[in-house]
Amino acid sequence: MPAAIEKLSASARENPGTPAAEPRDAMNTISAYVFRQALGPLLAILGALAAIAILTQGLNQLDIIITNRRAGLAFAWVTILALPQLISLILPMAVFIAVVYALNRMHSESEIAVLYGAGVSRQRIARPIMQLAVLAALAHLAINVVVQPASFKERREVLYQLRTDIASSLVEEGSFTYPAEGLTLYARSRGGGGELRDMLINDARANPPITYTARAGAIVTVDGAPAIVMRDGQIQRQTEEGSVDVLDFDRYVLQFEGVFEEPEIFFLKASDRTLFELFFPDRTAHFDQRNIEQFLAEGHARLSAPLLNIALALIALVGVLVGEFSRRGYGRRIMWAAIIALVVRLSALATQAAAADDPELNILQYAVPIVVILVCSAMLGGRSARKKRTSLGPSVLAGAEA
């Protein structure tokens, strides 16, 4: 227990009939202490979830990471660039969990009871928690408006540069590889600059199948798609009569349509756009015209979601601080607070989905957290907190120390 709390406790014991004075230094120390108690768990939760996201993404690309170290490092960077969107999604619930954990721990160690007994109001206890919630909301807003669009833009560029490298890594020297059904690649060895020597490609997807052989080749990007440029080779195709047509070439470009391409990654979805692009889409583009409502819903969600940090922090404060003192703990109240917080978070997501079909519902994206904030603030203020702590202060303190 910090020295400031012990000092207030001693003051309450010396003056059992009246609330203790609140020295500014002691109260500042207590506020900083409560702030740290909630900040630590919040950072731990965010760090754990970020580590899980990086691990799961790495396992999904384990084969590429093993065969191509450079591609593995790039995929780790791509995963890090995707973290802002994940943090934006889970930050409000992380704030709720951190506040509940901090306050429940302080209750279990009788620190809250000592503060009440010393005449400290629950509004004063809640002040550092609300400061943390406001900081989380500002960070959430910065992520939604600035960091996420910038990270997704960088992510698309990195993935675009990797497409050729990934395609090249799938061609293992001295081995047959199968990058797609019906497509077989072989290269005897690799040379400098990514050159492939003594190549054989069998494309059974064509009708009839086609076989390419070449003395050398390299994987390049042509019109934004991976392709193989072959030199000094032949094209063999079986005719309907059963004979084989052979065509010699000095240079031939074979494009891989749909083999290595990932069009969704490079598509400018609503989550990838800046706030300006969401509210002012290009109305001359056919895709933008069809998705204006979805863009508006995403834009309003980015502006309203930070309010959920304050709303859920208040739910946690009400769940733990509002109510009578209990030696048996606050498990039931915390459970109900968690259910309410989850319902509020899911309601915000459902409202965003509904607003994508009906733009008039966008106002509800702001109404949900604002209503929760007003209701919880009223409950936290409650009936004359000063009178309540005056009448219960010394007795609560005595009960906590008994």
Summarize the entry for a quick read.
The chain contains 14 helices and 6 strands. The chain has 402 residues and is α+β, with helices and mostly antiparallel strands. Helix 11 packs antiparallel against helix 12.
Please provide a written account of the structure.
With 402 residues, this protein is α+β, with helices and mostly antiparallel strands. Helices cover 62% and strands 15% of the residues. The chain is built from 14 helices and 6 strands. A 6-stranded antiparallel β-sheet has the order 1-2-3-4-5-6. Strand 4 (210-222) and strand 5 form a beta hairpin. Helix 6 crosses helix 14 (385-401) and helix 7 (122-169) packs across helix 11. The two termini are 17 Å apart. 31% of the residues are buried.
Please give the count of helices: 14
> Portion of residues in helices?
55-70%
- Biggest beta-sheet profile: 6 strands, antiparallel
* Strand residue percentage: 5-15%
Estimated structural class: alpha+beta
Strand order of the largest sheet: 1-2-3-4-5-6
Q: Could you report the average pLDDT, rounded to the nearest whole number?
A: 79
Multimer state: single chain
